[in-house]
Specification:
With 145 residues, this protein is of the alpha+beta class. The chain has one domain. Helix content is 37%, strand content 19%. It is built from six helices and five strands. The protein has helices at 3-12, 23-32, 36-46, 56-65, 67-72, 94-100; strands at 80-84, 107-112, 115-120, 123-124, 134-142. Strands 1-5-2-3-4 form a five-stranded antiparallel sheet, sandwiched between helices. The longest helix has 11 residues, at 36-46. It is globular, with a radius of gyration of 15 Å.
Length: 145
């Protein structure tokens, strides 16, 4: 089993071992440092169906708008800030991102076609195709730390 898949499998744990199409859940978990199960719960509350993908931008709006509701469920996201990187400041392809990753310190969610992954301090946590276009990037900050 490739190393990237073994890492994801261990992140999911036994309860979610058959989960698929959960790249946004995994990336969100990695970027925030949140346990996979807790991130999965947020996505369920957002309306993500088992085995189905999630829309990143709409998810981040949901989290921002429902921080108090999530806090009542013991999921603290009130200090989370996701800032969209303007298109003119994003690399055009994953190839360019890999070669300029050191210009992006911090934690990011990165969206390419039908896939999302985390980039932490210039390290891309995925093995996606080099030529994919970068569609969106969101910088994560925990203002409570």
């Amino acid at each position: 089993m490739p190393e990237a898949y073994a890492e994801v499998s261990s992140m999911r744990g036994e309860q979610f071992k058959f989960e698929r199409n959960d790249c946004t859940v995994i990336a969100f978990s990695k970027v925030t440092g949140m346990e996979y199960a807790q991130a999965h719960r947020i996505f369920q509350l957002f309306g993500r169906k088992h085995g189905r993908g999630a829309t990143t931008a709409k998810l981040l709006e949901f989290i921002s708008a429902n921080a108090n509701v999530l806090a009542a469920l013991k999921i603290n996201v009130k200090d989370y800030l996701f800032t969209s990187v303007p298109p003119e400041h994003m690399p055009t392809t994953l190839y360019h991102l890999r070669h300029s990753a050191n210009q992006y310190p911090g934690r990011y969610l990165v969206k390419i076609n039908r896939h999302v992954f985390a980039m932490i301090d210039g390290r891309i946590t995925d093995d996606a195709s080099y030529m994919e276009a970068v569609i969106g990037m969101w910088k994560f900050e925990n203002l409570g730390e």
